[in-house]
Protein: 4'-phosphopantetheinyl transferase psf-1
Organism: Candidatus Accumulibacter cognatus
Amino acid sequence: MPTSPPETRAPITPAHIAELLDKTPVPRLSGDDLHLWLLPFPIGHEALRQTIERLPDAGERASAARRVFAADRLRQMHARGLLRYLLGHYLARDPQGLDFITNDYGKPALSTADRLQFNVSHCQDHILIGLTRRVPVGVDLERIRPLPNWYALAAHCCSAQELNWLAGRPANDQERDFFRLWTAKEAVLKALGTGLASPPERVTISLPDTDSGFAGVAGTSSPWTLFSTCPDADHTIAAAIRTVINRRQIRCFHVAGRHLDQ
């Protein structure tokens, strides 16, 4: 497994996401390349917001409408709209004309044979979209926050090796490291296509010593590239694909001033 990959830095301000895609060529995504888009909620660019809110279809709107809180309804609408927006640009197709299917575990995919794989995760203030061409991808994003019962949750979902690793970490880092473990583990399960239908404790993650780099995966077959990073003090993200890629094949597009540090 190669050492920590440097991300290609392509900072994006919220006011220029639309301009980036409309005025420059679609970023090249070929072979087993992995593209990660980390974008802010809510969408501040008015024209982009109006475009995004028009893109979800009737089923996506109905799903969002079932959310109890208005902020969650808006967040889900923006997440689906942004996904369609990006996929449409990568495929050079009308984003409203894209059709989706789900597997038995609810993981969505394009219904056509476009050979573009994607996965989405969002939290209160950001969305993460991962894109590949040939291999399944899983991504996860979490806001690092106080979690009084984090150790009880860890005991339920972590392997013995992971619990031993957490116990050996500095006390001030343990809660943060639990979120790092969780995002990495969930990214792997989403790449497998099962999500949390598979017992998470059966997958063991070996995180890098630093906040950014490649992580190891045990407990499931196939070669893996699992990338884990903290783009800022408040968030952790992870992306997993079922093949080995080199450091130059990962590109991260992110909000200016919030670099994905190496």
User: Anything to note?
Assistant: The longest helix spans residues 70-91. The domain at 8-255 is CATH 3.90.470.20 (Ribosomal Protein L22; Chain A).
